[in-house]
Design goal:
Helices cover 14% and strands 33% of the residues. The protein is of the alpha+beta class. 12% of the residues are buried.
Amino acid sequence: MFRYYNLNDEMDRMRREMDRMFRSVSGAGLSTPGGYPAMNMWLDGDNVILTAELPGVARDEVDISIEGDTLTLSGERKPQELPEGATYHRRECGYGKFTRVIKLPYQINLDEVKARMHNGVLEVKLERAEADKPRKIKVLEG
């Protein structure tokens, strides 16, 4: 008897099983397909705007560093403390240390980097370095 085999379905099943096994071993569960934290990055004129979802992460637990055209975001999300004698019935919120490394589209003016956190969302505004901005070259006759 012929059985239809869908490779994508099988890969999804294997990924879910690996995620489940990793969470059961580590207890952290901060693994997602894109990594933790989830991030968005877009260009706005000569600025790069980066947002990262960091619910439950304290501002002083976040570290942002830039070297060349690489931004590194790291920190730690602490586990929720339960009252004395309480036990988990269901536990889906992950915790632990995290690091994301993002390649920036151009060199950044390090003196003008601005970062703020509001309602669990980190926003980092990165201004393009003047030396990295494109310049128009005037063509002379002769």
